[in-house]
């Protein structure tokens, strides 16, 4: 049953994306009571871990931006509480150095460096940030790859933020020498209005890679994943996501826009209705919501 839950977690790891303005993959979303999800010869929990780790990295880099650009009203998750952060304004580089290893308030041990090369403040259309790593580990897992985020927002629409994000050469190496890889492209949109009911966040895009046993996987958003301020519960209310690995296929249908926390999950031809639950996601109020990450 543990592996079944982990496979579901992998399929839904992106689900809370739009709850936050940055639209990152949020591993805090999970399903309760599912009896499906046969993982066959692999454990897809590692793909969920990869999504969660890159989410954590995005939080960390955005906190560094907020520190140096004084972004008022941003949400700080405390990812820098044991790191040394320096800024090279001439070359436009921010370095987050965790040294030989330090444990933050969340209990996560990080070591090595996260290096951010930027072209401007992330809230400004046209701004980009490129994130790379130098001997960087989260707990015992080495993280590699190049993550690029570009602000492509339409300045004529007040309150609209749109980010195009990519992951190239994403790789996790575990202590036993096995690896998992990831390539990804997403468009993340957030519209904030004084009228909360008009606010929304959405995600489109795809990811692919290989699991630890070499099995190839793909994750595709078949139709736009949407969270709307018109619903009190902050989970997706529409959109379809598909996860394929080996002979296994999971399709997650978040519904037709009805304000509920239910989703239909079809696994290898078997369909089940599951309940989604989000943890620690505050309700948006006007323009004073939580953080923004690319």
Q: Tags for this entry?
A:
294 residues, 15-stranded antiparallel sheet, disordered C terminus, 15 strands
Task: Name the structural class.
Answer: mainly beta
Shape: globular
Please compute the radius of gyration using only Cα atoms.
18 Å
Low-confidence stretches: 1-44, 71-76, 279-294
Counted by DSSP, the helix tally is: 2
Largest β sheet strand count, sense and barrel closure: 15 strands, antiparallel
Roughly what is the average pLDDT, rounded to an integer?
77
Give the terminus-to-terminus CA distance: 35 Å
Binned, the helix content reads: 10-25%
Instruction: Give helix and strand order, one letter per element, not per position.
Output: HEHEEEEEEEEEEEEEE
Measured by DSSP, the beta-strand proportion falls in 35-45%
Would you report the number of β strands? 15
């Amino acid at each position: 049953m543990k592996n079944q839950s982990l496979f579901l977690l992998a399929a839904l790891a992106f689900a809370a994306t739009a709850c936050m303005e940055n639209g990152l993959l949020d591993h805090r979303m999970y399903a309760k009571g599912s009896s499906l999800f046969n993982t066959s010869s692999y454990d897809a929990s590692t793909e969920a871990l990869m999504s969660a780790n890159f989410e954590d990295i995005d939080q960390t880099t955005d906190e560094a931006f907020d520190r140096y650009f004084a972004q008022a009203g941003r949400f700080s998750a405390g990812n820098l509480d044991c790191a040394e952060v320096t800024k090279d304004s001439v070359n436009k580089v921010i370095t987050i150095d965790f040294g030989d290893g330090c444990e933050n308030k969340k209990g996560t041990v990080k070591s090595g460096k996260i290096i951010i090369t930027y072209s401007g403040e992330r809230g400004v259309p046209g701004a980009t940030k490129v994130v790379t790593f130098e001997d960087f580990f989260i707990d015992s897992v080495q993280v590699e790859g190049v993550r690029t985020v570009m602000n492509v927002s339409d300045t004529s629409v007040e309150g609209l933020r749109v980010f195009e994000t990519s992951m190239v050469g994403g790789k996790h190496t575990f202590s036993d020498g096995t690896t998992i890889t990831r390539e990804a492209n997403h468009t993340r949109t957030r519209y904030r209005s004084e009228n909360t009911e008009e606010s929304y966040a959405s995600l489109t895009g795809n990811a692919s890679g290989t699991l630890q046993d070499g099995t190839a996987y793909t994750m595709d958003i078949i139709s736009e994943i949407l969270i709307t301020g018109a619903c009190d519960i902050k989970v997706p209310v529409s959109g379809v996501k598909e996860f394929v690995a080996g002979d296994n296929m999971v399709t997650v249908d978040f519904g037709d826009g009805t304000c509920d926390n239910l989703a239909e999950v079809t696994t290898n031809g078997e369909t089940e209705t599951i309940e989604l639950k989000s943890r620690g996601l505050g309700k948006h109020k006007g323009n004073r919501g939580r953080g923004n990450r690319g």
